[in-house]
Amino acid sequence: MLRELQTFIAVARHGNFAGAGARIGLTQSAVSAQMQRLEAHLGFALFDRTGRSATLNKAGKRTLELADELISLYARLAEPEGEGGRGGSLSVGAIASAHAALLPDAIAAFGRTLPAWRIRLVPGVSLNLLAQVDAGEMDMAVIIRPPFSLPAELQWRTLSAEPYVLLASGARRGAHWRDLLETEPFIRYDRRSFGGRQVDLFLRERRIAVRESIEADELPGIVELVARGLGVALLPDSRALRPWPRGVIALSLGEDTFHREIGLAERARRARAAEPDAAARLADCIVTAAHAPKRVSMRKRGGVA
Q1: Which site among 108, 182, 221, 269 is 20 to 30 Å from 32 CA-CA?
Q2: In whole numbers, what is the pLDDT of the chain averaged over residues?
Q3: What whole-number distance in Å separates Cα of residue 102 and Cα of residue 198?
Q4: What are phi and psi of 164, to 5 degrees?
Q5: Which residues, 6 or more positions from 103, have their beta carbon under 8 angstroms from its beta carbon?
Q6: H or E stretch at 19
Q7: How many CB atoms lie within 10 A of CB 224?
Q8: 3-state SS string over 197-226?
């Protein structure tokens, strides 16, 4: 019944058979057949079915809790036993800036306490990573806070709030940020990303008309484009991007400053034993690394205004 339990969890998370089937690669009829087999095997109904929706009833909610635990226990059967106790693997998603500036310290600290565990790092954009955590395809993800409420099964821990600045050529030192936005070619932070949406909203609310030049999602790439004099850009002042390249200045937006909130999205944990599990320990290591004092880089690449 393991396959049916996995499908049941997907249906509970997506609210209908069609959505669950699309997520796990089954047709709606196949999902329906599996749920009928599971209910027949258990001897009671799991859903209140109304039209195309499938809402968990009281028995279904209790079964969901137990199903999560059963699937977790089954996964542990394949975990290798290594030095420092039984090990396993954890899947962690992260936006590009977190890979460079945050996760190395967190993983190093985690490895000192649970050396037998393996970490799989998954790069991606915030929206896709959030969907994978929600679907149970990865344990947690460091992402930009979305402009909508997280699913009820997920919890959020804020790691940092990065102020946006205007990056420009050093030759524009002394100019006002708004004048530069309205006159210089604009290198846009991709509007499909959560951070890019913040930039777009900022420009629209302040009725700033920009001269579109380039649109990109890779922040280090945008910084390098500014360094080559190809335009100006609104980017978060992230420690992963520091220090700025030579010839690049960062202008404060003053009272108009807005922030990109970076945080950890993970599945909410039910109260269990007093001893935290490996995923909880890794999450705590990530939070600790994010709040640790920033290390000063020895590289000298440029100045900041």
Answers
A1: 269
A2: 84
A3: 22
A4: -80, 145
A5: 92, 94, 121, 142, 286, 289
A6: helix 17-24
A7: 13
A8: HHHHHHHHHCCCCCEEEEEECCHHHHHHHH
Amino acid letter for position 165: V
What is the spatial distance between Cα 159 and Cα 106, in angstroms, rounded to a whole number? 12
pLDDT band at 76 (very low <50, low <70, confident <90, very high): low
Quickly count: other Cβ atoms within 10 Å of residue 5's Cβ.
19
Q: Which amino acid is at 261?
A: E
Distance CA(23)–CA(292), nearest Å, equals 38
The position carrying tokens 């226990």 is 73
Task: Determine the distance from the C-alpha atom of residue 159 to the mean position of all C-alpha atoms in its chain, rounded to a whole number.
Answer: 12
Instruction: Go through 248-278 and write b for each residue having 16 or more CB atoms within 10 A of its CB, e for each that does not.
Output: bbbbebeeeeeebbbbbbbbeeeeeeeeeeb
pLDDT > 90: percent of the chain? 45
Residues 6+ apart with CB under 8 A from 61: none
| pTM attached to this predicted model | 0.67
DSSP 3-state assignment of 105?
A: helix
Q: Could you tell me the domains of the chain? A: 2-76 (1.10.10.10), 82-160+261-291 (3.40.190.10), 162-260 (3.40.190.10)
> Which of 46-60, 113-127, 161-175, 191-205 is the least confident region?
46-60
pLDDT, mean of residues 9-34? 77
Alpha-carbon span 284 to 278, nearest angstrom = 10
Pairing status of strand 154-169 against strand 259-267:
antiparallel
Q: Which two tokens stand for residue 116?
A: 């037998």
